[in-house]
Design brief:
mainly alpha; 3 helices
Length: 77
């Protein structure tokens, strides 16, 4: 294991735990490595989303009601 790690307890569904154990064995990675990688991917996706929000913050916002009215007027719904 890495030297700069923290120990924690997580609770996951028993079937997910079983699948994680099998994947760990088949990929020759620890369960911790697989969970850490999944967390990194999730946080990276969040970072991309936040960057997109920041890029678009100056765009005008549209009210959902107005979007629905326009769709209805154009015969889309």
């Amino acid at each position: 294991m890495k030297t700069n790690t923290k120990r924690t307890t997580i609770y996951i569904d028993s079937e997910l735990h079983h699948a994680l154990r099998i994947k760990a064995a088949e990929t020759e990675h620890s369960m911790s490595e697989l969970v850490e990688e999944a967390i990194k991917i999730s946080l990276a996706e969040d970072s991309v989303d936040l960057a997109a929000f920041d890029e678009r913050k100056k765009e005008p916002s549209l009210a959902f009601e107005d979007v629905l009215k326009k769709l209805k007027k154009n015969g889309k719904i």
